[in-house]
Amino acid sequence: MKIAIVGTGYVGLVTGTCFAEMGTEVFCVDVDAKKIDNLKNGVIPIYEPGLEEMVHRNQQAGRLHFTTDLTECLNEVEVLFSAVGTPPDEDGSADLHYVMEVAHTVGQHITKHLLVVTKSTVPVGTARKVRQAIQEELDKRHVQVEFDVASNPEFLKEGAAVKDFMSPDRVVVGVESTRAEELMTRLYRPFLLNNFRVIFMDVPSAEMTKYAANAMLATRISFMNDIANLCEIVGADVNMVRKGIGADVRIGTRFLYAGCGYGGSCFPKDIKALIRTAQTNNYHMRILEAVEEVNETQKSILFRKLYQYYKEDLNGKRIALWGLAFKPETDDMREAPSLVLIDKLLSAGAKVFVYDPVAMEETRRRMGDKVHYGNDIYDTVVDADALMVVTEWKEFRLPSWAAIKKLMNSPIVLDGRNIYDAKEMQENGFIYHCIGR
Questions:
Q1: Which tens digits make up the pLDDT trace of 16-36?
Q2: pLDDT (tens digit, 9 = 90+) per residue, 193-250?
Q3: Which of 18, 352, 357, 403 suits 165 as a labelling partner, its CA being 20 to 30 A distant?
């Protein structure tokens, strides 16, 4: 079976590579010539555990190809996945410009049946627009070519995307015809050996499922952050509260960790897009508006704690940050809490020293020389007036606190992910602040 993946970003590259791993011949297409040249030469544009080795292996096996010209492979493939970007517009809605470009290109060039599958996160009704765009182009050509559209939203976690794709807890597929369902069943059949579920449904429901899933997870995070802030006020411990409510099987333990806010390429963008979709349909998503508001406020919580501690004077203070990516096991800094924190520290006159195991290059691209770059966790805290832990990388969990205390100017630690034990930190001579305790 031959398929095409349009877009070699996070979703597209992982999707194409994993399908190739299962024996499918895959053509990955992107308009970025430099990115395609790099991929042909084995240079991977994103950090994702296990992906680089898998790309190299399938390139060498002749199953994974990279090109800038969709028309080269369009009439060789049976299925085309559209995995292009859908960045937020100024009003929060998803920008479908690239999605529609793919649809028009398909309509301009197909000569035989093709199943066009939207993999990007798109608002409900996008598949209908894609179908209309393809048909418009066919009408202009005065030809009749059968085609199908489908929706196959991704549920990949950055840092575990390869594992999630190869062993998913479910695959959601929205289809409009038996032919489309049969093609998607054939494509996913090799994965069925792992006993996961392919859930077929109508296309609008599949499109909504992706947004609803991310909205629920974001809601749990903001809910716990709201509870954590109240816990600090009334003297409760959010970690104890989390264990108490997580033991309820109706609630469970996932996504109940308080912290300094969520970021990344999915939750912030998708919440905004879902709110905007509701507005265009004269509906008010009150809960999600609160979720977004709580999260934006939470990104500043470490700054507020430090600002209060130093009596609203951070001018000239040296502040160390451990963790820059929005979560561990990725270099993705889109909507990362660290960006808000750094901006506020710099505006207050502080000198900021940063370290992240994999996101240093991305930080340099974004911030240039606005911050100072440490070589490791110890180099970053030299003469620091405070240490802020923003991302819960594993290498941050058991540092030598004795060495760190000697290196720092003031032994102040603000833990934005609640990864340390308060009693142990105090015994090590640190002034320790965390979230919700």
A1: 999 999 999 999 999 999 999
A2: 766 678 999 999 999 999 999 999 999 999 999 999 999 999 999 999 999 999 999 9
A3: 357
**Which residue is listed with tokens 């517009």?**
89
Burial code (b: 16+ CB inside 10 Å, e: under 16) for 329-361 equals bbbbbbbbbbbbbbbbbbebebbbbbbbbbbbe
Residue among 18, 231, 266, 434 flagged as catalytic: 266
- Dihedral angle over CA of 256, 261, 267, 270, nearest 10: 120
Q: Would 130 be classed as within a structural domain?
A: yes
pLDDT tens digits for 368-382? 999 999 999 999 999
Say how far apart CA 139 and CA 154 lie, in whole Å.
32
Contact assessment for residue 383 and residue 407, using Cβ atoms and an 8 Å cutoff: yes
What Cα–Cα distance (Å) separates residue 17 from each residue in 11, 58, 190? 10, 7, 14
List the CATH number of the domain containing 369.
3.40.50.720
Residue 206 lies in a domain: no
**Looking at the structure, do residues 21 and 119 belong to the same domain, yes or no?**
yes
In a shared domain, residues 120 and 8: yes
Amino acid at 96: L
Which pLDDT score is estimated for 381?
Answer: 98
Q: What whole-number distance in Å separates Cα of residue 98 and Cα of residue 6?
A: 10
Query: Residue ranges of the chain with pLDDT lower than 70?
Result: 90, 194-196
Say how far apart CA 57 and CA 51 lie, in whole Å.
10
Residues 156 and 125 in one domain: yes
Instruction: Write down the pLDDT at residue 266.
Output: 87
Domain stops at, among 201, 222, 251: 201
Q: Which helix (H) or strand (E) holds 171?
A: strand 170-174
Note whether 26 and 71 are same-domain residues: yes
- Calpha distance 286→274 (Å, rounded): 11
* Residue 156 lies in domain: 2-201
H-helix or E-strand containing 377?
helix 377-380
In a shared domain, residues 155 and 36: yes
Asked if 71 contacts 102 with a C-beta cutoff of 8 angstroms, the reply is no
Distance (Å, whole) CA 433 – CA 398: 17
Q: Give the neighbor-by-neighbor strand order of the sheet with 412-415.
A: 372-373, 351-355, 318-322, 386-389, 412-415, 431-433
Q: Are residues 113 and 181 in the same domain?
A: yes
Regarding whether 412 and 397 lie in a shared domain, the answer is yes
Q: Would residue 434 show up in a list of annotated catalytic residues for this protein?
A: no
